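Task 17 of the worksheet. Students: predict the tertiary structure of the chain below and write it out as C-alpha cells. Keep your answer in the requested format; marks are given for formatting as well as content.
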Amino acid sequence: VVATQSSGSSGINAEYGEFNSRMKLFVLAVTLVGCVLGHSWMSCPPSLDTRPNRGGNTVGPCEREGTKKIMTEVKAGDRLKVGWTSNYHAGGWVRLALVPEGQHKVYEHFEKNVMKIVCYGHDERRGKTSYGDCVHPCNARKGCEYMANKYDGNRYDTTIKIPYNLKDGVYILQYMSAMSGHKTFYYSCARLKISGGKPSLPCKRTGKAPVAYGCMKGMAIPLSKYEKNTKMGNFCFAPNGLGDQDADMRKVPVNADCDPRITCQLSVNSKSCLKEDAMSTITNAWDPKQKCSGAVRPGPEPTCSDGIKNNGEQMVDCGGPECDPCYEEPTEPEDTRIYSDLAYNEKVLLEREMMEVRAKISIRKEAKNWQFTIFLDKPVVWTHFWNCKLISHNEYNTIWTFGPMPWTTHVKPGQVISLGFNGKFENDGERPQTVTKSFVEV
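Model answer:
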C-alpha cells in the first residue's frame, strides 16, 4: 500500500458490591469525557480527515476532508485492512460500501454498493465491557495483526477484498456505524486508488450484503436500519467471476502495519491504555502504524482449547458455531418427572441491570430431596432467593443449582412449591434469558 499526499448471598453480595463500585467509577469516567471525544471513525486505511482529535461526523455521507489529500493505492485482488478507533464504545455494526469518486456525495450510491456489514467490536475479556462501553483501546487488534478468521470479528477491524471488476481509478470507501447507544449514524470515508481490474467480468449481484456472525447488538439502532434500502454492490471477488469476498481471509492485507487504535489520548485512562499490547509504540497518531518484526503472517487458527474467547465462542472455549456447548441441557423424560407443572416467569429490567424469576412447581411424585437448576445464556449473579438455598454455580455464573430449605425438602403429590430469585447482571446491551431449567429428585 502506498500513501501519497497532494494539496486539496453474603459472599455473592460482597462480590457484586465490589464489582458495582468499580463500574460506577468507570461509568463516571466515561460520562466526563463523553462530550469531548465520543464516537468513532475509520483509521485504517487513513480517512479523509486524519486528525487524531477530530471527533465523529453525523452529516455524511463522508466527513469534511482535511488539508491534505490522502490516497491509498491498492490492486485488484488485494486484501485491505479496515479498522476504526473504539473511542471507549462497544456494540453495534459497521456497514462498508465502495463507490467511484464523484458518486460519493450521494447517500443512495453507497446504499446500492455495500460490500459487507461487520461487527463494530467490544472488549470480550471478562468484565471489560458494560453499559455499551469499555476502556479504549478495548482490546482492539494492533498493527501487524489482522482479522484472519470470520468468527474473530469483535476487535474493531476487518479486511475487505479489492474487487477484480473495477475500472482503474479513484474510489471512496465508506464506513457507517451507530456504535453503542448512539441514536444516529456516524460516517467516515477513505480514498483508494485501484488498478489492475477487468471491468468486463460478469458481476451482477442481487440481495443484501453479508452480515458478520457474533456481533454484540447496539443499544439504540438495530441491524435492520443498517440494511434498509441497501443491496450488495456488483463486485467480483474471484478473477473470473463473482466469488466470495472472504474466501481468502488469511491472506495478509497490504496495509497490515496500520494500527486503528490511533492513540491513548482517546482513552479515559491513558496510563492503563499504554500498558495494552504495543500502544506505547505508536509514535504518530496522524498516521498510526506499527513496525512489523519480520514478515506478517496470519495468527494461529483459533481452537476450542486455546484459553481465549474467540472463534465465535459464547464463553472461553465453548459455545458458538465450532465448539461444544458450554453446558448440556438437562433431559427429563416425562415418565420420570416428579412434577406435573412448572410455571416459570422471568422479568429483565435492562437499565437497572436486574433480573427476576418466579417459579411455581406442582408436585406429582413423592421425593425426599430435590434440586432446581437454572441455565442462562449470559452471566447473572443471583443476590436473593426464597424457599431454597444455593448449592453451586459455575465460574461463568450461567449455571445455578439450588436445593430445598428444611421445610421444603420432603415433597408429596399435590404440593406446590414457590421459588423466587432476584439477580444482577452487566448491561452490555443484551438481555439475559433462561435457556432451560431443571427440577429433579436427588
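Marker's comment: Residues 1-37 have pLDDT under 50 and may be disordered. The helical segments are 10-34, 107-111, 223-227, 270-274.
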